[in-house]
Amino acid sequence: MATTKWSIDPTHSEIGFKVKHMMFTNVSGKFGTYDATITTDGDNFENATIEFSGDIASIDTANADRDGHLRSADFFDVENNPKLTFKASSFKKIDAGDYELTGDLNIKGVSKTVKFPVEFSGTMTDPWGNTKVGLSIEGKINRKDWGLNWNSALETGGVLVGEEVRLNIELQFVKQA
């Protein structure tokens, strides 16, 4: 069977995350510049090859000082580690629209295997004749697993920045001719 390539549609995608601030509220952010591709056997997404890269310099939390701190050596160290990457090792169908995505997430030169549930929308043709597919990914990672260790103790107890990062990713791909 012929392989099919799918490219990210960045105007209909978002790579978002949330982290607890001061132990009780969430700060949200996103990556503005990224790339992703999927390679499938025909239009069958089971065991698809999925690759993603995000530009650390494009991190946006709606606060320039915080974004600068996240880009610094305290966190992502963008000068030495300009991208984070993900490469799937498995994309397994669980039932009708539910899949499980497993792969290696590389941040700051540290690679760890992660597993996320994925809501798969199936394929759809847009008004201009393009075949599209949508994926919604939600999951959690511990930022310390990738050496993102910076924190500050609070006088009242606890820490300024939570360790758990919740991912909220909406991806739309377009089938390539």
From TrEMBL:
Coiled coil: none annotated. Residues 5-174 form the Lipid/polyisoprenoid-binding YceI-like domain. SUPFAM superfamilies: YceI-like. This is Polyisoprenoid-binding protein YceI.
